[in-house]
């Protein structure tokens, strides 16, 4: 049975404008994935700024080979669970594969994830013309958007695997151009995944919106990890950009608090967690 953690510290709710203030003031943003109410309560108690219900649940919860089989109904279900465990932490939900195939479907999915499931922001991958149009349409209707560029997992077949993006000069310029495009379309924040740390720093400095890195180097405005990766419980090899924060600690709560502290202090990620 899930019981609300009454000992959780009282915090002011994290807001979208508040994230922009954090970037302006140079305060690191801490983001972590969650898929149920119990993990959400741990994240809330540790003072994490943003919880992401990622379609990564397809791999770490469902045991799928990719994020592609995750459905909108499943995202709504898991987002609803996570929302029950949060009070101040901002809740972001992933737009699953092909839910953004056109503007109409993106609006329908956004409405469900915000209105039905309780998210405060929608994350959407890529910068294709229909994605930019969807970002614009969502934000026009008061649905904040988190863009996602670089190594976008829903494009795994196009990339030929989970490969670092933006290493060649032409590719780096493309990712930078996409970053400007999603900002112009109205995205409130950007998740930048799997790019060289020099490119991560360049994009972070170029954009007005906060840039949250995952394998994008230490100079981003914040960091995000898959919670199962940072606890060392994901089957198989842990990604280079992650770290086992549970090792040497007595509880999941202590591990999440240590992750938040290391992101805020700049101790994580280190060079060993970044790409050249």
UniProtKB/TrEMBL annotation:
| Compartments where located | Cytoplasm
Q: Which Pfam families match?
A: Pantoate_transf
What class does this enzyme belong to in the EC scheme? transferase
Keywords per UniProt = Cytoplasm, Magnesium, Metal-binding, Pantothenate biosynthesis, Transferase
Q: What is its EC number?
A: 2.1.2.11
**Chief site of localization:** cytoplasm
Catalysed conversion reaction: (6R)-5,10-methylene-5,6,7,8-tetrahydrofolate + 3-methyl-2-oxobutanoate + H2O = 2-dehydropantoate + (6S)-5,6,7,8-tetrahydrofolate
A single GO molecular-function term is:
3-methyl-2-oxobutanoate hydroxymethyltransferase activity
**What's the protein called, per UniProt?**
3-methyl-2-oxobutanoate hydroxymethyltransferase
Q: Which SUPFAM superfamilies match?
A: Phosphoenolpyruvate/pyruvate domain
Quote the function comment for this protein: Catalyzes the reversible reaction in which hydroxymethyl group from 5,10-methylenetetrahydrofolate is transferred onto alpha-ketoisovalerate to form ketopantoate.
For this protein, what does the record note about how its cofactor is bound?
Binds 1 Mg(2+) ion per subunit.
Pathway where it operates = Cofactor biosynthesis; (R)-pantothenate biosynthesis; (R)-pantoate from 3-methyl-2-oxobutanoate: step 1/2
